[in-house]
Design the sequence.
């Protein structure tokens, strides 16, 4: 079955600390992978995406993610977290069927301590 | 570019009434639009996929007679919640995808509260 697993429901980090949010997918081929962020009261914003090529992708707001085929993972990282990064983070991928529906993880809620 | 708007952003209605939510792609044509529902602290649940000029495809468990979707033009899709009840209260999000494009662009969402 096609699925996305975000093992960490909630993470708390201190401002300035590094961050890694985990994402594992289950899919029979190389998927199109996405990370979205949803701030309180805000819409979903695309942080970065991976379709092909370089497995380390850079996104907005200083985020990056690395696609590891052998581990079926697409973990999101940031070297130094800012208080404004507190939000809900969603990993997702496209299936290959009609309409290319996004398959979503359950999200990781990030809290940032001052 | 690639802006999607939703209207209204918030709506409060009485039980038994119908509510229409609009989703517009402002600067591109969207052959496909998606409607999601998001519960508090939960992920997005895809409700239906709509292609311009054809009937929407509903996900399993979504009542098509309750959640009416119309995608009458390449820039507008509407979701009508008919005979709304308190359990329909939720955050509804639409997204739009341009033709031959692999990314969806999301609207800001509509908070529906049914009293």
Sequence:
């Amino acid at each position: 079955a096609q699925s996305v697993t975000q093992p960490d429901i909630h993470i708390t980090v201190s401002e300035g600390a590094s961050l890694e949010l985990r994402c594992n997918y289950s899919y029979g081929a190389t998927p199109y992978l996405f990370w979205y962020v949803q701030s309180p009261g805000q819409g979903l914003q695309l942080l970065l995406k991976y379709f092909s090529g370089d497995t380390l992708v850079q996104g907005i707001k200083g985020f990056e993610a690395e696609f590891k085929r052998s581990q079926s993972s697409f973990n999101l990282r940031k070297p130094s977290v800012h208080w404004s990064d507190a939000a809900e983070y969603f990993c997702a991928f496209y299936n290959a069927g009609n309409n290319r529906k996004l398959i979503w993880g359950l999200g990781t809620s990030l809290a940032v301590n001052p | 570019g690639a802006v999607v708007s939703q209207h209204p952003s918030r709506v409060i209605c009485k039980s038994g009434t119908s509510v229409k939510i609009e989703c517009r792609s402002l600067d591109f044509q969207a052959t496909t639009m998606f409607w999601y529902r998001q519960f508090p602290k939960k992920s997005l649940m895809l409700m239906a996929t709509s292609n311009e000029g054809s009937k929407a495809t509903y996900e399993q468990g979504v009542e098509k007679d309750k959640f009416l979707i119309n995608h009458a033009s390449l820039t507008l899709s509407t979701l009508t919640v008919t005979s709304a009840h308190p359990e329909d209260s939720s955050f509804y999000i639409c997204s739009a995808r341009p033709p031959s494009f692999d990314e969806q662009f999301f609207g800001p969402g509509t908070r529906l509260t049914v009293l």
